[in-house]
Design brief:
The protein is built from 15 helices and 15 strands. The protein has 384 residues and is of the alpha/beta class.
């Protein structure tokens, strides 16, 4: 099978969608499929010189690489796509890249599967502070989704957002398949914890929370910091792993509240083995985001036998106090109360074990990719 993947960015950049596309690509190749990835141009990708990567001429916006915009000369691109002759197109972008490959698929009768990764309106509103602009932006990406033939949904809870956005009722043309992780169960957790304690000056009896991801407003990282100001516990540390436009503001917020001894800013960690070691040392991962549809960090934490705290009604993975924790809303006191509950939860070891057994174990990229391939084969059979 010839499969075309489309994405807004790629390695060496890091975010959940990039990790997802990279792992699906690797698994598809191992299964013997011909795969190409179309992404905006970057010097780093040019140096990699991978024949499977199709680079679109691009410019960067002042906002950063995440919103890279292709230049409007598409003939060379279409020439490469026609030469490849994909059997199916899988779009992980509702922006320019997604629009391009979706139009190509419609024109050449190639089925297009669009993956719904993000609660877009929430991010648009937090960036623009304008409901009008946010609705206009949302309308443009909904058009891209509606031009696809199939919708790949990561969590059944996302169907309510899909209806809210007025994305077409795909009916039987919805593929439900969540994400996976390449992490494995690793031995010697005690040695790893000792290593991380030494590296980051953490005491053995410190309770560690972690956030891993982009430092952007929609991730609500400031909620963690503001709640921490109300936590009366001298043995709590917080890892903030990542980088982004919010870095300076978050550092200033930590300093202003005299929490520098509590918060550890690691920067971006592209060493996946080191990142898992941080997850292993973590007692509870935190992601109080109304942005993500199926965050990979929840799986990565669970693979490390670490439970996560998420926002209620934004995941079907977690049962509160069973295999993780849920917070009812994004009010500072609500988050503070939940953190205090976790700090005093005598059953946290059981919750951690359940996270590993129920959230991580069924979800490997190999298994997820094999399932997607079976769906692609069904699509091709019925698209004739």
């Amino acid at each position: 099978m010839k499969i075309l993947l489309g994405c807004d960015s790629y390695t060496p950049n890091i975010d959940g969608v990039i990790i997802c596309v990279k792992n699906i690509y690797n698994c598809l190749k191992k299964l013997g499929h011909e795969v190409k990835i179309i992404v905006p141009y970057s010097k780093e990708l040019k140096k990699i010189n991978n024949p499977d990567i199709i680079l679109v001429p691009a410019i960067k916006t002042i906002i950063g690489w995440k919103l890279t915009l292709p230049i409007f000369n598409y003939y060379p691109l279409y020439k490469q796509l026609k030469k490849f002759k994909p059997d199916i197109i899988c779009s992980h972008s509702p922006f320019v890249i997604g629009s391009l490959i979706t139009k190509f698929g419609r024109k050449h009768n190639i089925p297009v599967v669009a993956t719904f990764h993000t609660h877009f309106y929430d991010e648009f509103l937090k960036i623009t502070h304008s409901k009008f602009i946010s609705k206009c932006l949302l309308k443009s990406i909904v058009k891209v989704f509606n031009n696809a033939n199939y919708l790949h949904v990561l969590d059944p809870l996302n169907t309510s957002t899909i209806r809210e956005y007025a994305i077409n009722d795909f009916g039987k043309n919805i593929i439900f398949c969540d994400n996976g992780t390449e992490y494995k169960d690793v031995p010697n957790h005690n040695e790893i914890k000792t290593f991380i304690n030494s590296k980051y000056n953490i005491a053995d009896n410190d309770f560690v929370f972690s956030f891993v991801g982009r430092f952007v407003q929609c991730k609500n990282i400031d909620l963690i910091i503001k709640a921490a100001t109300k936590i009366n516990n001298d043995h709590v540390k917080y890892f903030l792993v990542g980088d982004g436009v919010e870095m300076k503001r978050l550092r200033n917020l930590v300093s202003a509240n005299k929490l520098n001894d509590k918060f550890i800013f690691t920067g971006i960690i592209d060493d996946r083995a080191l990142l898992q070691k941080i997850f292993i040392r973590t007692d509870c991962n935190i992601l109080i985001s109304d942005f993500d549809t199926f965050p990979l960090t929840i799986l990565e934490a669970a693979a490390s036998k670490t439970p996560s705290l998420m926002l209620k009604n934004y995941t079907s993975l977690i049962n509160d106090s069973i295999n993780g924790y849920l917070v009812d809303d994004m009010k500072i006191d609500t988050v503070k109360d939940k953190i205090n509950f976790i700090l005093n939860d005598k059953n946290i070891n059981l919750v951690s074990a359940n996270a590993f057994a129920e959230i991580f174990k069924p979800r490997t990229w190999e298994r997820k990719t094999e399932y997607l391939v079976s769906k692609y084969e069904w699509i091709l059979k019925h698209n004739k």
